[in-house]
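quick one, 333 residues, struct below
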Amino acid sequence: MTNLAALDLNLLVALESLLQEVSVGRAAHRVALSQPAMSHALKRLRSLFGDPLLVRVGPQMQLTVRGEALRDPLKEVLSRVRNLLAGESFDPPHSTRTFRLFVSDYASDLLLPSLRKRLQQEAPSVSIRVHLAAENRLDPFELARAVDAACVPNCFKGFYQQRLFTDRDACAVRRGHPIKMCLGAREEFLRAQHVAVVGREFTEDPVDTWLRQESHQRNVALSVPYYLQALHVVSQSDLIAVIPERLIRAYAGVLHLDLLPVPLDVGTFDEYLLHPAPSHADPGCIWLRGVLQSLAKVLGPLDPLRIGKTPRHSRSERASRERVSKSDRPACP
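---
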């Protein structure tokens, strides 16, 4: 039995050249070896295979029966080795891969419809398996093993991170709502009946946590777990909701909503694209991150005239006090 541990892969490269050129001189030139070095390689190959491989017949060299039989199998083996060393490629139009994406409720409502449209155009057989975030239960090490990428408002140790986009809270009201003309008054805003968004990871809407810290309290008439539910309720009632501005704009046309500024300095918050180290150099994951970044870029910048003069605690910073343990606090640049 051949000892593979003692096999020099360069010998197989030399053999490939010898079998193709059927000449020691031409084979040496093909792989940039001297003729004596190729002759020495042929001597070792003859010993390895127990066959002359190349023999002289008159003025020319010819392959033995064993040499002829080795041509195609050797070509296939070396092709596989070269592909292995070159790394896996990713061909979006023909890939049938399933990617695992971990997203916040907000990011899923904002980005997934556009992501699906892009996939239909560029990678129709690629699928996305979405896991919604419940960040107070997150173990970063478990997350790194479970997903290819994440779109969340917090960063985690051990992840590569890039800022996707910036957003801020705004007020969503149904089109034609009577409060539309007088929302500039803080008291009117606080007295209005609100829909709060209390996800499974919260004890209350982070907006209410922040308002209480600012010595304010709004009138919450209904609490729902998801932003999109809140927008549907607002579209069919006189209730109002404080929702990320980009999300209101994305659904304003479909749900017949108007967007109004919150009469308090709510500041801004960021959404991040994270990915674990195992997926950093993977061609498919690199492609997916590029698609997500391009979708975020299409969102464009926020209107600078609407940003508060002094951005205070962002939504993610306000919420992190309740949903992220001390060891998992954001480590973003």
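The CA atoms of residues 170 and 245 lie 5 Å apart.
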